[in-house]
Amino acid sequence: MARRKKAVPPAAPHYELAHWLRALRAESGLTYRQMADRIARSGCSPATLSRADSGSALPRLGVVEAYAAACGASVREARQRWERAASGTGTAAARAERRPGAAPAGGRARRLELVYEPAHLLEAMHRLRLAAGQPSLRELQERARTGGFGALPRSTLADVLAGLRMPSEPLLVTYVRCCGIPGDRIAAWRAAWFRAVGSCGPTAVPAALPRVRSLPRHRTRYGGQEAAAAAASA
């Protein structure tokens, strides 16, 4: 029988993902050790699986997929739920903002020509995806492939949308095209990218967007010319 743990507090940063994972484990009746034996791969130890459903931190996508598969659940649903958590729409802050009468996340949208910081660019990317119907990362990757827009690796895009890294210019262009931005607006997005990268001095450490305001406050390591070089090789 699965070992009982303290309930996930509703205020936990990733309550919804953790609650879903715990429900899967409870239904399967498996212990973390039994799950790890089923997965039988590095990076998915019993301790790692236990942390994955704590709700306090976002687990790696591979861990969530393996957790779900071990419990007999859909890997596709696991990926979708992880993407939702990574984008911030499954956080406690986002749930509070969805209450009746609550203000929309981030307030009024910033005009693209007023994007000057990495956090501004991240906010614009999230708002664009939301306006496009919140397509999954897999769907965006497929749109890039079938539309001939260029490469759009899901793992890289997940890091970008989680605020862990700056997008490269080609990745940003591919992303916005996959979200339905017409060709005559691409130049404005490119300009926004150059302003955001250029705003990072050589020692600056730009913080990711707080909570889209839905994202956790991850930090990036990119600044100035280092940002352009790192982003170009993403």
From TrEMBL:
Q: What InterPro entries has UniProt attached to this entry?
A: Cro/C1-type_HTH, Lambda_DNA-bd_dom_sf
Signal peptide boundaries: none
Q: What is this protein called?
A: Helix-turn-helix transcriptional regulator
Q: Which organism is it from?
A: Kitasatospora purpeofusca
Bias (Low complexity): 85-94
Using the UniProt annotation, give all residue ranges assigned to the region (Disordered). 83-105
Q: Say which domain of life the source belongs to.
A: Bacteria
One Pfam family, please name it. Answer: HTH_31
Q: Which residues form the HTH cro/C1-type domain?
A: 21-78
List, alphabetically, the SMART domains matched: HTH_XRE
